[in-house]
Amino acid sequence: MENRGQKRTEIVDELPADKRACSSFEFRPSTSNSSAQTPMSSAHEAHDAEMETSSSTSGSTRSEVDGEKESTNGSCDSDSSLRDYYRHQSTSDHAKFKKVLSRLSEEFEESAQLALLTELCELLSFCSDSSLSSLMADSFSPLLVKLARHEGTPDIMLLSIRAITYLCDANPRSSGFLVRHDAVPTLCQRLMAIEYLDVAEQCLQALKKISREQPLACLQSGAIMAVLSYIDFFSTSVQRIALSTVVNICKKQHSESPSLFMEAVPILCNLLQYEDRQLVESVATCLIRIGEQVYHSPDMLDEICRHGLVQHAVNLIGLNSRTTLCQLTNTGLIGLLAKMAAGSTIAFKALFELNISSTVKDMLSSYDLSHGTHSIPMLDGHYSQIHEVLKLLNELLPAVSIEQDGQLKSDKEDFLLSHPDVLPKFGVDLLPILIRVVSSGVNLIVCYGCLSVIYKLVHFSTSEMLQSLLQTANFSSFLAGVFTRKDHHVTLLALQIVDTLMLKLPHVFLNSFMKEGVLFAILALISPDKNLKLFPVFDGVRLETNGAQKSAFREVYRCPCYAFDMDQSSKSPDNGCCKLQKDTVHNLARHIWTTFFETESVNPEKGVSNILQKLRNLSSALTALLSKSQEDATCSQLEEEIYGVLHQIVSELNEKDSISTFELVESGIIKALVNYLSNGMHHVGKETNDMANQCYRTEKRFEVFGRLLLSCTDPAFEKFSLLTIVRRLQSALSSVENFPVVLNHASKLRNSYATVPYGRCTSYPCFKVQFEREKGEISLREYSEDIVNVDPFLPLDAIEGYLRPRVCNIDPKNSAVWSKDLRENNSASSHSPSYSSDSTYKFADGTVSTEMVVDVHKPQDGRRDILLPSPRDTASSGREILDSEKVTGVHTGTFEQEEDSTLQKDDGVKTDQPGCSNSEDTSQKLLFCLEGQQLDCKLTLYQSILKQQNELEHDIIPSASLWTLIYKITYKRSSFCLPSSCNSRTISSEVDVEKLRSADDILFLLRSLERINRMRLHLMSCQRMHVFAEGRTDDLDKFDVAVYDVSQHEFVNSKLSEKLEQQMRDPMAVSVGGMPAWCTQLMAWYPFLFAFEAKCKYFHLAALGRSPAQILPSSQTYVGTSSGRQQNHVNFPRKKFLVNRNTILQSAARMMELHAHQKVLLEVEYNEEVGTGLGPTLEFYTLVCHEFQRNGLGMWREDQVDCMNSAEAENPEFLVSPVGLFPRPWSPSLSSESSKPFSEVIKKFRLLGQIVAKALQDGRVLDLPFSHAFYKLVLDKELTVHDIRSIDPSLGKALLEFQAVVERKRYVRSLSEEESQDPSVCLRSIKIEDLCLDFTLPGYPDYDLVSAPDSEMVNLDNIEEYITLIVDATTTSGVSRQVEAFKSGFDQVLSVQHLKVFTEEELERLLCGEHVLWNSDELLDHVKFDHGYTISSPPIVNLLEIMREFDREQQRAFLQFVTGAPRLPTGGLASLNPKLTIVRKHCGKWIDADLPSVMTCANYLKLPPYSTKEVMKEKLLYAITEGQGSFHLS
Question: Is 766 a catalytic residue?
């Protein structure tokens, strides 16, 4: 435990209070004084005990770590001696027990009895488990119970009851013996008499022990009322013990009369108002259990309600509750309210009177639906909170079904009718949030629950109420999206809602349903065989026709029919029985169509809306013009006509709410825009030999379209064209995508042994596979083994590499080479962590190291089939066995270089067939087939099998049976390999994930718009250059034109983010290979669709994997993290490393040399300092970061160094660049061998890469202000002249002006009739020649841009070459070796390819945490006050005011002092773990002379209660500025 300041050493060498021997003078009858003082003293002692627990816990942790560091093994002799000692001790204790028993049975003198009881307590305290036999315990029980009844002598009563308590600990069967001898009634009698407070407290201790094993006996003896009757007399710690007894009794399900519980309800309800969290949680647990006991008795439920339980429970579950309960207890209280609302009219009315809808609204609104932390319906047997909330809401509205008629339903309906304001309030509060929950892509059960509440709300609302409620919500669009979900339970609810709305408001919803496509969704339901090519959005909406296909999965599929049934939800039938009749959906759809829609005016063939028809006409016009442009590529008039149509399309799309999502998707506009941007290359069948011309045209079209969207002068941001179109496309994507979420409904993973491909134990089940040679294949041998266990989460490439040498007729020479390569790779592989991305495949002949993660679908320039795997040479065959370094570049990447001059380079890339290697005989390559379908070797076996389950029509595919089947996989020799010149589109039909087809164009267009948004400044600068070139302006100061930007959050699709979150929480998602292929493919191609938090989780899963310990219920969070990031080192062993403050970089280099390749959690200890743990480690990383920012290292550009404040001006040894750190250019003519300074720079960059990766792996925050341009280079993004401004603003501005001069020169020459005519082009009225520029890099006169720098100066003819050379030297040739060194260092710890899912802004947050540290609102929410302080304490009020007044540097110093790092982790104060805690520091006589101290490992600030705010600020500022640089005990 590391601390700053001086620590008070305390040695506890005595027994706990309840295990100390006592004498008679210690006990006295309780009086009013003692009763009043006991709680105070106990509370004070509890606080001290909690403080000591923190230290002892840390010490325990440290000792465990030290034990791992220096483990010792005892000898067999020492073990034998230890056994002999315990055997002798047990025999001795047994003899002592017999002696005490004999004397206690015969002795009647009180003083002798006291002595014997004292001796017995001591014996029981220290005896071993085998010392006290059951016979002996049974013999002691009647004697102790008899003595406990002893009247008049409190010491005998106390000691006998204490002995009973210890007896329960010493022998597990003692509780039964004591119950048989009436110990429980005796203890209850003493509690009810409460003559002596100490005796009563000891009775509570004894009952707590007995109730664990004998809850029924305690219940029957009236123990509940005995421990609760006088609970107010005890201190808080004793009250907790009393409640623990009640919890033990209530937890067991008893068949006894519920009346035994009911008399305790008033006291328990009163205790809910207490402030102690542990106490309130225990009370809530008791009431939840009692509610389950009396649920079927309305009278008892009514009685519970009369004691105010409903009001107290509602107060506790509210967000503003003064007592914060744990997730499980909070969920249980919501479930209790649901049960009470279901069975008690009093509770039903009370909930509405307490405005429950507002409380539930706040709860649902607090859920981050884009991350879905509460959306799993069931995990580890516990229902999630949102599931219980939906059960409550369903019970707050009467049942619609006629079958559930009854008095309670009638009473509920009467209440709603007699209170007409209740239902509208309910709808206003909850309808919008319920719509948002469903639209976010939650799982089937939650979706069904939300729709059930919405249906009831619509059913019981009047027409006027509905019209008012739905006037602001696009309800028709919402229903159209619901119809795309393929479950019939959801579809039936949607149809019932449509039926009700058409009955009540036909004039309002008739046209709306047609406009949004609801009409066509219903038509698809009743016409499964009709060709609906006209409206393909609902082409997948079909009725299930073959129920037999699903029989294998029904046994594990939890039917939504029972999910919210209060009688059945806890025991849903396992036989797949469903309440839904076979033809229910079809019949209702037919009824709705016949009744409301079967007219000429709404016929789908003729009833197309005017807007849809207009959009179709524009789409057809654009398509026709694009076809003409393909024939005549030089016609400028044609491009002007195309621009005119584009302008009309953008204008139409920019009209607010005039176009529905259905109309946008069905109009063909999206496809036409994609064809325009890709010049027809996006879709199959467009071949061309003139790729240069294609690239040029797509580049120009991209610029034209980008400027059209960005040149918005309307100040109303809502009408910004780019934003409007992005939102429309997001809505369209959410409507048409149908990516399956595959959840395994097993709460725990089982260990298994994977024979194939590497022979190793796994923490997850394996597939049973039988490999068979395909019929007719004669060149391969039969695989000798019958059924083998195959690792499901590794690529089929790895399986192929295992199987090929065992079935191929390899010639002996090649076989020897194969074995040699395997052995070499085996010796080169140093480690193989179970959950690492660098796992090793262990074959019989050696090891083949490759990535365990299977995200090899790295996007490339071949665009058509975005699901094509990477065409890189990743074959695991023959001599091309990949080691961990070769495979580094195979993993996830972003789509294209940001500044590619053309978007459509994506479409012309040539690729080899996946799996083919040019370096070996491809006839040896194996192909696998499952049920006649060829498997993609770049997918995992798990992903391949999931593809074959595409006939399932549930959003969440029940996949438990996948693990019990035996899969027959046939193999054959590959008969061909495509040449490298073969275009990827020619094999796209072989790699087809149909789930992505409908969303393909939308995704492409969204990616184009996202790129336009990122390049907005570049595009508008180019437009300004064109204006300058044409002579329409001579003003060169307008390159920094104001451009509206779209927040990156607008590109995040909440529905897909939610689905990915669900998928990553699946127990089988131990790596990205354990998720459906769409997760890795979308993350690779379209990472902008996912929220930053989802990307972080995906990164940790892909880069580090996940151990079973990290699979936690939704009610828990990852604990133990130092920085607030997801804990990614659960199973990593801890390593301590001793460093010297005076040689930080040398220590860091040594640390990385030893541990960079190891999956260990590093902790730092400073030489000659006692502190260790989190705080010193964070400070070490901070100090290393500062060392890398020193002047004179030759690593960074220093031309933009600027001292930001006076403190830095006095200390100029560190670089402070306003644009961030960017590598200093070094001439390519220098080499690390010939130049020692450059060699040192390369070594430092490699070390820096190791440090950054290790910090990321261990979850440490860095203080490294890299420039965004540097992050782009790390992410393999190309930098252009426009990026120079983010490196050197003055140089960048000058280069853009030079580029403008070049553009004007080109324009003038294009107008000139004679090419030889020299145009008169000047820069700000100055000729280029007069600037006297030479070909050296500005700011670096020793860096020659050309080989002969003295040959000529820069002039108008060579200025373009000058610009190109400067950009190249600044961003490429001058810094590439430094960047590669950084990446190579990073790769030694983690694959840098994993970072490519992030943007440069997100990467900065990931590595360095938050820039904005805190604001005034966050302090109250995320700072904890404890051990003598509350939020209203005067010192706390002063501290919060001081913290609000801190400037940025003072905030950084404060954080450095308290946590060890000057930055907060991603998420700010809310993510700091442990939470920032302020506790009272006990000082001497002169409080104002003392200084604050901290415990950095616990983020504890020990603050003295200073007399004034001024004194506190002075001492605090002194501490945070002067108290750095060492760790000592405090």
Answer: no
